[in-house]
Amino acid sequence: MRSNALKNLLQTLLVGTLLMGLNARAQDLQVSMLTPPVTDQTSLSRVITDARGNVHLSWVASKDDSSALYYATLTEANWSPAHLIQQGNDWFVNWADFPFLAVTDTGMVAHWLQKSADGTYDYDINAVFFDQEKHTWGQPVIIHKDGVSAEHGFVSMLPLGEGRSFMTWLDGRNTKPATPHSGTDNKEHTMAGGMTLRAAVFDRHGETLEEWELDGLTCDCCNTSSAMTATGPVVVYRDRTEQEIRDIYITRFADNQWTKPLAVSNDHWKVPGCPVNGPAVAAQGHLTAVVWFTAKDDQPKVQLAISNNDGAAFGTPILVDQGATNGRVSMAILDSGDIAISWLHTNGKDAALKVALYSQAGKLLAETEVAGTQSSRRSGFPVITSQGNDIYVTWTDISAGSQVKMARVRFNMPPVSAD
Amino acid sequence: MSPLRYTIIALLITGVSLVGFTVIGSDALPNQMPDQASSQVPTHAPTHAPTHASTHAPNIAPNPRPIEALGSWKIINYWSTTCAPCRIEIPELNLLFDELAASNIQVLGVNFDEDDRKTTLRLARRLGIEFPTLNLSEVEALGLPAPSALPTTYIVSPTNEVLTKLVGIQTKASIYTLLTELAIPH
Question: Alpha-carbon distance A183 to B153, whole Å?
């Protein structure tokens, strides 16, 4: 009995010490709210860091049926004015499928979704390319060349050298039925083919230089994510098998070709529907990390997997959160090599926007709640980026209307990635 | 000393230490940017809201338009314009809506994307949805758990208890089979 009591005491002290250790590190974590030049009725924000270390925030302002895509740049402590990229009355605006902005070495590229003329729910990916020398945006181009009125979206972008940009997207060109819908025979409503994952490289003017189909059957409505490793780009997405297993897969560009997609983790989440909850990937050198949501057996989880060989193989998944989470993950890697993750931790209709920091070895270094938000889809997908060893976070506050918010999370702690 | 006392003492030591560290950690933030409004790490304590369907009928009094379906069995379908399988099952649900019109079973829709009401109704028309689409207040009053995948269809009792959650494409026949299995008169 006495030995059991001592064991209990030691276990409790051990847990307490670990928690104190985490909390001691968390005391060095600062959350500062920023004031970007956004107005009310804004949402769908995204934040990125360019090669020079400037942080760029993009967002959509909506009024009635009109939508406008803006960006602003944070240089050191100063925000630029809000710059209009494009606006329109025929955009497809969706909380989960929203614009991307990338900054290249010669300009910028941004995309939005525009409804197709013929489809009732079809939309194209339109992009504009900014010419730094002329200081103007070019004419919009449709980045996919299929000419099929179908769904195209869930874009991710990467800047490449010499003004080029890399984009991935979900492409529904094969989903259109061979015969028009009619009657109630379910066979006639079956889609002709599945959603595909495609990628392309564009020059500074928007001309397609190369294009690939990366996967011929993917989940229909989960965002894609891409990152540049030491050996080339990687694309991470939610796969779909004929048996409706929808786990997270990765494909890498190696030896001048795309590798066969491989599971980051064999979660075996069998779900005959779309989770609307894609993964996020980040890379630094050979370090590649992926965070994702899964819910096998109705048990929601956020998991992290780390690779030290450009995403060729990943370690055992690390559990970030479970039970009370609806995912909506984002990821960035700090200069220190530590891995930052954001996700939503839910409590009924309320939610907490959480940020955690992990070492390259997968050790939890710090965790905090950046802001209270809501589980509602209207609160969108928070996005993070890194600048040095800081994290910038953006999300949509829907407590009164809809307004884009942004914060900086600063980790004042010694590097511990060798732990 | 009993095991319970060991544990209580250990927890007290841990708790006091944690409070101490937390107080230290919540000091005012240095190094603020000039254009920033500083905030401490929030101590957000959200109010409780049900994460699963209640077995009791929610208070629907504040709803601007209490739904006719309350008090009846309900087939509640979550749809989205980005969800291709959703569009496939909509004609089947329309048929079900017609055929169950005289029964005590309502077929209802929910826009998963939570667009504003005007947009939601426009999208519902474009998708050919003929059954009623609930507004955000009505959805909140029902206290349904948010689906983790689309399409999702709930079978809900008159007291708003979720009897079954169906994920994936449904057909009229599959739902009739389920209604029979659940002994719901139709």
Answer: 22
A55-60, long-range: CB < 8 A, 24+ apart: A55/A385, A55/A387, A55/A392, A56/A101, A56/A103, A57/A394, A57/A404, A57/A406, A58/A85, A58/A99, A58/A100, A58/A101, A58/A110, A59/A394, A59/A404, A60/A93, A60/A98, A60/A99, A60/A112
- Residues B36-54, buried b or exposed e (16+ Cβ, 10 A)? beeeebeeeebeeeeeebe
The amino acid present at A277, given as its one-letter code, is N
* Rounded Cα distance, B95 and B159, in Å: 25
B21, B113, B123: residue with CB nearest A23: B21
Tell me the CA distances in angstroms from B86 to A21, A273, A378, B110, B173, one per residue in order: 48, 9, 20, 11, 16
Q: How far is it, in rounded angstroms, from Cα B175 to Cα B68?
A: 21
Q: Closest-CA residue in chain B for A326?
A: B148
What tens digit of pLDDT does each residue of A72-128 get?
Answer: 999 988 999 999 999 999 999 999 999 999 999 999 999 999 998 655 678 999 999
Report the b/e string of B92-111 with b at 16+ CB within 10 A: bbbebbeebeeeebbbbbbb
Residue A222 has pLDDT above 80, yes or no: yes
Closest to A266 in 3D by CA, of A287, A236, A296, A229:
A296
Our CA angle for A138, A142, A147, nearest 5°, is: 150
Alpha carbons A105 and A172: distance in angstroms, whole number: 31
3-state helix, strand, coil in chain A (%, to 5): 10, 50, 40
What is the per-residue pLDDT for A120? 61
CB A84 within 8 A of CB A67: no
In terms of Cα–Cα distance, which of A385, A301, A377, A298 is closest to A57? Answer: A385
pTM of the model: 0.82
Tokens linked to A53: 């270390």
Q: Which residues of B touch A372 (CB under 8 A)?
A: 42, 44, 46
pLDDT at B52 (0 to 100): 31
What confidence score (pLDDT) does residue A132 get? 86
Please give the average pLDDT of every successive group of 10 residues along chain B, which has 186 residues. Answer: 51 44 29 28 27 31 41 93 91 97 95 92 92 93 91 94 95 96 92
Contact A326 B148 (CB under 8 A): yes
Give backbone dihedrals phi and psi of A86, rounded to 5 degrees, phi first: -165, 155
SS3 percent helix, strand, coil of chain B, rounded to 5, is 35, 15, 50
| E-assigned strand segments in B22-121 | 37-38, 73-79, 105-111
Of A9, A19, A347, the CB nearest to B10: A9
pLDDT at A76: 85
- Residue holding tokens 């329309």? B94
Check CB contact under 8 Å for A153 and B114: no
In terms of average pLDDT, the best of A18-27, A114-123, A352-361 is A352-361
Nearest C-alpha neighbor of A397 from the set A405, A409, A388: A405
**Tokens standing for B46?**
């959200």
Determine contact: A277 vs chain B, CB below 8 A: yes
pLDDT at A413 over 90: no
Residue A279 above 60 pLDDT? yes
